[in-house]
Amino acid sequence: MGASAQVEVGAQAVELVAGPALPKTAADWRHAAILDIDAAYQLSLENHPGTYDPVNPDFLKNLKGAKEYGLSLAVKVVDAAGYVAATQGFNVRIHDGHAGMSHSLDDSLLPKLRWPGFIAVWRGDALYVLASEAGGPQAGAEVLACDGKPIKQIISTNVFGFQGRIDEAGHWWVRAPRVFLDRGNPFVVTPKRCQFSVGGKKIEKQLHWTSISEQGNQWLTESYNGEQLEVGMSEPRRNLFWLAMPTFQPDEKQRDAYRLMLKALGEYRQNFLSADAVVIDLRQNQGGSSEWSQLFAEALWGKARVDRRVAAYGAKTSVWWRASQGNTDFVSGLVEVLTQQKQTEGAQWAKTQSEGMQAALARGDKFFVEVDPVTAAQLPADANADMPGDPPAFKTPVYVIVPGQCASACLDAIDVFSLFSNSKLIGAPSSADSTYMDVRNQTLASGLAEVIIPNKVYVNRPRKNGQVYLPAIYVKDLQWSNANLLKAVETDLRKNKQ
Predict the structure, then answer these.
(1) What's the pTM value of the predicted model, to 2 decimals?
(2) Taking residues 371-397, what's their average pLDDT?
(3) In a 10 Å sphere around its CB, with 0-12 CB exposed, 13-18 middle and 19+ buried, how is residue 140 labelled?
(4) Domains along the chain with CATH numbers
(5) How far apart are CA 265 and CA 375, in angstroms?
(6) Given the DSSP bridges, would you call strands 142-146 and 127-132 parallel, antiparallel or unpaired?
(7) Which residues pair with 244 in a beta bridge?
(8) Fewer Cβ within 10 Å of end Cβ, the chain: N or C?
(9) CA atoms within 13 A on the CB side of 172
């Protein structure tokens, strides 16, 4: 874990612009797509750590392939929807979640979201109907094929051709259902007639695409994350504690809720030591600062225990900062920002990295290698062994609910929780992280999109680039309700008592 883990340069640089001059004609949109994809390629080439990453030679090859494919779409663009699709095609070919570009077009410029009257969910090995309006396929029906093609083939083309990463199990849970959503991508053909399996019987239905209803939007929101809980702790039954952590990028109200939970864990630790189970609910979580999960691990297992295991886990990991002019200027600017925010520790951290990057840039080095104060020689022979002064061991079963979109600081949380044998993952496979981190967003000259540029790369990180976490317990219920998740926990507790 890098020294910057607690300053998650959540650090997305926001460059304010007066508002882009929008293209007016088909030729204007085409020109904008070509120029922006070319500019995104060039900025990535100059600043992204992957360009010079010795352990990832595929990055540069993928970036060049992304440019070629993106431009092959860009020359066919005639409107905003085509512009978005071309940039998405560029992103997918890079095959890295922390690279590419994100458009900043207002929704009003794009066609309204359409659906065929039902919402689907991916549950491990197939696509099922979650819910349907009157006349639609029955809830629970498996989607087999559309227009004579297996549904997996259509998902691969229509969905993963423009978003997500097809080889990440978690992305199937999150992205595959979007095969039945349409935002006007001109480079795909939406399904027209599909075959379903209901109770072993096959039926066919013609699809009628219309603007998604309010009910459809609600089903869509609940489709892969289930119910959304506020940050906080509950006790769904006596002696079972449920810690909801839907974000690691909390607002002030959520920060207060996290502090209240941490206070309760400290004051009533004995209750958790003797509990039947503790559930850590990461549904909805899409990252933020890894500080929060570290603090909760320390509250449960003890700070010294966590520190030793985390240090041992990352003992061979080093952090290389890509010392381009743009990245160096960005990190240098963080010093002032964090100073103004009175984040003294963070400002000092940024100053150290900034000075190192400036020196590397002056020497012509591609990277500044951050020196980690913890070395293997300073670690105990067995980082997992208890030491004098440790609090009583926390052995209560811990169930960590993992959603398919879990990435970034959400994965950092699983890294830490998984260092303890009483933790068990439940739910879906996670997404995967790039080894490229501390992202900044640079607005393109057009004002229509931003380029995603990480400032650093983790070298020898135990969790590899593209590596996902697989749950010990898959929850394949159509509804990811609190009740269904609790049922899966209770079933496992009973099994372990037998």
Answers:
(1) 0.88
(2) 77
(3) middle
(4) 8-109 (no CATH), 114-211 (2.30.42.10), 232-442+453-497 (3.90.226.10)
(5) 31
(6) antiparallel
(7) 232, 281
(8) C
(9) 20
